[in-house]
Amino acid sequence: MEELAIRAPIRTGIVRCALAGFCCVLLLPGCAWLGVRAQREALQRFARVRGEVRVDVPSEQPIIVVLLRRSEPENALDPETREPTYRIIDHFPLAGAGRFGFAVTPGSFRLAAFVDENRNRSYDPGEPALSPQPPFRLGPGETLDDVELVIPHDAALAEHYDILALEARAPRDPRNFSLGRFSVAGDVVDLADPRLGPASGRLGLWRFVDFLFEVGPGVYFLDEYDADRIPVLFVHGMGGYPQEFANLIAALDRDRFQPWVYFYPSGVRLESIVQHLTDTIAELHLRHGFASMAVVAHSMGGLVSRAFIHQLGTRAANLDVPLFVSLSTPWAGSESAANVERAPESIVVFSWLDMRPGSEFLEQLFYHPGEPARRHALSSPTQFHLLFGFRRDERSFGPSSDGVISVQSQARREAVQEARTVLPLDVDHAGILRSEEAAEALRSLLLQRFEKRLWHAR
């Protein structure tokens, strides 16, 4: 994608300092600003379709919604039927009736759905199904909302939809982009894979659309899935990457726990990241059936994780998160982002908007939308533990911080009130991930919280 040079001046010293602070913190060269406007514009050109699906006779069986795209060139016709041809490009699995959504490049589409009675992620003869619905077209940035799909309990399909075969093909064709096809749900990788390193983290912050094509957002496994071990999901922060968790992952008892890492483009709106994480974990839960998991998050990843835990119950009712550990999370936002709306759009990544103190996203982490006095606490059985750092460079000025996030933000009153334990550490923002004290605390919390489950598993 062609990068655009930035010519618009930053008009105030305050904004200049704020943006410079972000750049210095993340150790990025000045050229990192290039292309942000192009990335924002490309992201806004994606089209979306959202709706709900159910069976006309209520059922608790899994449902898969199928998205079909008209084959290119669009004037091509099937040689036998002389009708336009559509091919499956994505799917959306649900544990039962519920909401679905797709993000795609513009084109012509149809939707179908079926009940996956034998849970093999393929349509088999006799399973209730909804045939492909009338076609619709989506242009750049358009959204088709409130689609309602009702699967007849006594209808079947002529077509055979094999989701596993679709995933096996997985050609990454930008012209036929669909977020689900580019997402990762359980690929096994080595943590040392360069794809999980700092270059990809920078790509995800500044060139977030390129990240979708070149890296692939989603949940990566570091071992083959093991039903006898409890998943521990690690969620990085702004500009972060999975390899940052190497020390904490090394501290895990790998006989009892299996590490997963969520890698995402940290330059997009946090609500989109939360939805993607929720969808991905829901799909993995549907596939593997694990009953519980732990979540460990650093910096902005803690914001993503708390919102994800709030949402998870709507997608995976039989999945618990008994333990949530945050490290150096800016619960009250980042002071550096306070004036970011005054900067030229060409250099502002979307996630900064959600990091502003008092943003709607931040407030809804602790209070229900539209009800500022009603607390939105983590539901049982989730136990929350808060770790934060307070070491900064001796030459630093201003409020006490870990060199990046103020202690006041890390120790936001509502977060502290809800935490089972609060552990302040004499480390800086990145150093907390290398801290032996943090690793020991995590190891202890995991064993304490999952002791009974581990004992029963054995």
Give a concise summary:
The protein is 29% helix and 24% strand. The chain has helices at 13-25, 36-45, 163-169, 179-182, 198-206, 208-214, 246-250, 270-288, 300-315, 350-355, 360-364, 407-410, 413-418, 436-449, 451-457, and strands at 47-55, 63-70, 86-94, 98-104, 107-115, 129-130, 136-138, 143-151, 184-188, 218-221, 230-235, 257-263, 292-298, 320-327, 367-368, 371-375, 383-389, 421-425. Helix 5 crosses helix 6 (208-214).
Question: If you had to describe this structure to a student in words, what would you say it looks like?
Answer:
There is one protein chain. This protein is of the alpha/beta class. It has 2 domains: about 130 residues, Carboxypeptidase-like, regulatory domain (Immunoglobulin-like, Sandwich), CATH 2.60.40; about 280 residues, Alpha/Beta hydrolase fold, catalytic domain (Rossmann fold), CATH 3.40.50.1820. The protein has 15 helices and 18 strands. The strands form 4 sheets. Strands 9-10-12-11-13-14-17-18 form an 8-stranded mixed beta sheet, sandwiched between helices. Strands 2, 3, 5, 6 and 7 form a 5-stranded antiparallel beta sheet that branches. It is globular and about 70 Å long. About 40% of the residues are buried.
